Amino acid sequence: QVQLVESGGALVQPGGSLRLSCAASGTIFSINAIGWYRQAPGKQRELVARTTRGGTTTYADSVKGRFTISRDNAKNTVYLQMNGLKPEDTAVYYCNGNIVPDSTNNLEYSYWGQGTQVTVSS
């Protein structure tokens, strides 16, 4: 059983910073691509940032230059450093990982966390 648990969401003023964390636990052989998505009220879930095991990163245009994704493979954890936050960044942020639980068959599955709320408001 694989679980992704996010933390770090909070209420922050415009221009502020937050650091989100997502820790993967359970039976894990390898974590391939892992990243962050967000969903604002009334909107579809969208990609924020994603990183591969090899270190290739992808960012949404709306967060480039403000957000930075990083991962600690030893801790099975991915982080999202968010600077220069704007009210339009308000959303529930979800962690998503493509994970291989079992080394014997190398099958990859997509797992989601439960989400953490980020609210940017004065």
Task: Annotate the secondary structure layout.
Elements: E1 2-7, E2 11-12, E3 18-26, E4 30-39, E5 46-51, E6 57-59, E7 67-72, E8 77-82, E9 91-100, E10 109-112, E11 116-120
Parallel strand pairs: 2-11
Antiparallel strand pairs: 1-3, 3-8, 4-5, 4-9, 5-6, 7-8, 9-10, 9-11
Task: Describe the fold and architecture.
The chain is mainly β and 122 residues long. It is built from no helices and 11 strands. Strands 2, 4, 5, 6, 9, 10 and 11 form a 7-stranded mixed sheet that branches. A 4-stranded antiparallel sheet has the order 1-3-8-7, with no helix packed on it. The radius of gyration is 14 Å and the shape is elongated.
Portion in helices: under 10%
Give the distance, in angstroms, between the N- and C-terminal Cα atoms.
Answer: 40 Å
Our Rg estimate from Cα atoms comes to 14 Å
Strand content: over 45%
Q: Which ranges are low-confidence, i.e. pLDDT below 50, for 5 or more consecutive residues?
A: none
Derived from helix and strand composition plus strand pairing, the structural class reads mainly beta
Number of E-state strands? 11
Mean pLDDT: 96
Largest sheet, in brief, is: 7 strands, mixed
- The SSE order reads EEEEEEEEEEE
Tertiary shape: elongated
Number of helices: 0
